[in-house]
Write a structure and sequence with these properties.
mainly alpha, 105 residues, 4 helices
Length: 105
C-alpha cells in the first residue's frame, strides 16, 4: 500500500468511528426511558450495531474492506433469519436491523 492508500484507509475508518459516536450521542441517557416501544427498539438495534462495529474497529490490522465484509456478513445473516421468521413483529425488527447495518455501507 502507498502512503495515500494508507491515508484513505485511515480516513474511511475514522469516518465510520465518527458516525458511530454521532449515533451514540443522539440518545441522552436520562431520556431513553421515555422512548416509545418502536423508538426504544431502534435505539437497542443502533447501540448493538455501534458496539459491534467499535469492537471491529479496535482490532489490530483492521481495514475498511474487513469492516465492509463484516457488515455484509451481518446483513446476510439477518436476511437468512428473515426468511425463517413467521412472526410479523420479529420480521419488522430484522428488517430494521438490515436497514441500520446497510446505513454503514
Amino acid at each position: 500500500m502507498t502512503d495515500s492508500d494508507d491515508l484513505r484507509e485511515l480516513i474511511s475508518l475514522t469516518k465510520i468511528g465518527e458516525k458511530i459516536f454521532k449515533i451514540k450521542e443522539m440518545y441522552h441517557p436520562n431520556l431513553i426511558a421515555n422512548l416509545s416501544k418502536e423508538a426504544y427498539d431502534l435505539y437497542l438495534k443502533r447501540m448493538s450495531i455501534c458496539n459491534q462495529l467499535l469492537e471491529q474497529l479496535d482490532k489490530k490490522d483492521i481495514t475498511i474492506e474487513k469492516i465492509e465484509d463484516f457488515i455484509w456478513k451481518k446483513v446476510k445473516e439477518s436476511k437468512e433469519r428473515l426468511d425463517k421468521i413467521k412472526n410479523e413483529m420479529e420480521t419488522k425488527l430484522i428488517q430494521l436491523s438490515i436497514k441500520e447495518w446497510e446505513l454503514f455501507l
